[in-house]
Amino acid sequence: TPFPNQLLSILFWNLGLLLLFLWLLHVFENDLAAATAVAYLTVTPFVLFYSSSIHHEPSCFFFFNLTFYCFVRYLELGKSRRWLFATCIAYFLLCQSYWFYYVSAGILFVALQVRWRSFSARDTFILALVPVIATLTTFLQVVYALDGADRAMFRMKDIAAARTLDMRIENSEWYPDKKFLKAYHWHRYPVT
């Protein structure tokens, strides 16, 4: 039954919205601005559509906002190591939830450091290691699931080519006869 998954998804979305409000409150230093940002987000097509999902979106939303709540606290409280550690754990769980957030989170990490006028190459390097470690652990999980590094490497290359460039590698197993984006889609972008 999907009922427990639906409850967990609702919990993740609601906690994610609360965390979003809290970290934006620290960034904007204004209740109204933070509440307006959260209210706006709740009526966007993305949230309206994915808020009923039991796939990766609820956990990604929760871990994304947990990551930045922890990071903002780290920046505010004089760079306490426990908040950096909490940021890294939350970011690792975000990266394990879905690969899509690596770059956007990295840009936001730098932007928040600049906002607090406390850019640190050391902190940026530590945070940049997290997706690398997440990628390696994902690879090890795939090695275990597919009984070997060769099959795992092939599978990851196959998915990377298909998911990033909508291309297929030789002997592809990832929807080998299907293209997801055609010229029509690119012509209509961003409507698609």
Q: By helix and strand content, what is the structural category?
A: mainly alpha
Radius of gyration: 19 Å
> Helix count?
9
Binned strand content: under 5%
Shape: globular
User: H/E element string?
Assistant: HHHHHHHHH
Number of strands: 0
Which whole number gives the mean pLDDT? 86
Question: Stretches where pLDDT falls below 50 for ≥5 residues?
Answer: none
What is the distance, rounded to the nearest whole angstrom, between the alpha carbons of the first and last residues? 32 Å
Helix content range: over 70%
How many strands, what sense, and barrel or not for the largest sheet? none
SSE diagram, text form:
Layout: H1 3-28, H2 31-42, H3 45-50, H4 57-76, H5 81-97, H6 101-115, H7 121-146, H8 149-165, H9 183-188
Helix pairs in contact: 1-2, 1-4, 4-5, 4-6, 5-7, 6-7, 7-8
Overview of the molecule:
It contains 9 helices and no strands. About 20% of the residues are buried. It has about 190 residues and is mainly alpha-helical. Helix 1 packs parallel to helix 4 and helix 4 runs parallel beside helix 6.
